[in-house]
Specification:
This protein has 270 residues and is an alpha/beta fold. Helices cover 46% and strands 12% of the residues. It contains 9 helices and 5 strands; from the N terminus they run αααβββαβααβααα. A 5-stranded mixed sheet has the order 3-2-1-4-5, sandwiched between helices. A hairpin with a 6-residue loop joins strand 1 and strand 2. Helix 1 packs across helix 2 and helix 2 packs across helix 3. The longest helix has 32 residues. The termini are far apart. The mean pLDDT is 88. InterPro entries: HTH-like_dom, Integrase_cat-core, RNaseH-like_sf, RNaseH_sf, Transpos_IS3, Transposase_IS3/IS150/IS904.
Length: 270
């Protein structure tokens, strides 16, 4: 009916099978590349999104099956919690201006800040971070072996020097570091409006806590404990500045990196 020979049909069929195998081999290679390029952090949803960006037509289910077949599993973390908030003090508390409104219309409109514990064989470490609610970028951070006011001040000053914001809302918990006289005075000097969570309500600062959870799930607890404080500093710098801010796709901003999302904002508003 098709006016082709039997041998011609079988030759075409073999050719089609060969092309399918070649395509699958290329797909497996790209999935492997994205998996290891993310330091074994990306799972099938993010790798699928990266493949779509490259022009591949493939389902997330297929990506997941290929990853399982090859034993490529995104990192999982054990639960571990150290208390870093000391709200048992009589220092002034700022009103809850943010009030769980985590939406933002531009960069440097709302910042959220928090401290988290970082395990290290050489001794305890504490990370103070400040996240921009619009871009999801970590705009300021500092690592120290002491959970002091100086730690959060250095993170704040770094963020301000990098972004020079005007009228940004700075939201944190009620920790003594954020409620200290030095910190409140610095916020006032920089023209930053303070906001603090309600007592014992972790949901009031959920976004920065979510970042710390991602950091620990993807990077801290899925790998051997840092041997030295210097190693912790170097590897955290690489993760935050080069991977999280500039490379890691974020589902809440269209699977773009925070830096790329910020660049696009200024391109379209210029």
């Amino acid at each position: 009916m098709l006016q082709v020979s039997r041998s011609g049909y079988y030759k075409w069929q073999a050719s089609e099978a060969s092309e399918t195998e070649k395509r699958r081999e290329k797909l497996v290679a790209r999935i492997k590349w994205h998996f290891y390029d993310s330091d074994e952090i990306y799972g099938s949803p993010r790798i699928h999104n990266e493949l779509v960006k490259e022009g591949w037509t493939v389902s997330e289910r297929t990506v997941g099956l290929i990853m399982r077949e090859n034993g490529w599993r995104s990192c999982m973390a054990r639960k571990f919690r150290v208390t870093t908030t000391d709200s048992n003090h009589d220092m002034p508390i700022a009103p809850n201006v943010l009030d769980q409104d985590f939406s933002a219309t531009r960069p440097n409109e709302k910042w959220v800040a928090d401290i988290t514990y970082i395990p290290c064989r050489q001794g305890k470490l504490y990370l103070a971070s400040i996240l921009d609610l619009y871009t999801k970028q970590i705009v300021g951070w500092r690592l120290s072996d002491k959970m002091t006011t100086d730690l959060v001040l250095e993170a704040l000053n770094q963020a301000y020097e990098a972004k020079k914001p005007r009228g940004v809302i700075h939201h944190s918990d009620r920790g003594s570091q954020y409620a200290s006289k030095e910190y409140r005075e610095q916020l006032a000097r920089l023209g930053i409006q303070p906001s603090m969570s309600r007592k014992g309500n972790c949901y009031d600062n959920a976004c920065i806590e979510a970042f710390h959870s991602i950091l620990k799930r993807e990077f801290i607890y899925s790998r051997p404990k840092f041997r030295t404080k210097e190693e912790a500093q170097q590897k955290l710098y690489r993760y935050i500045e080069f991977f999280y801010n500039r490379k890691r796709s974020n589902s809440t901003i269209g699977y773009m990196s925070p830096v790329r999302f910020e660049q696009m904002y200024y391109q379209f508003t210029a």
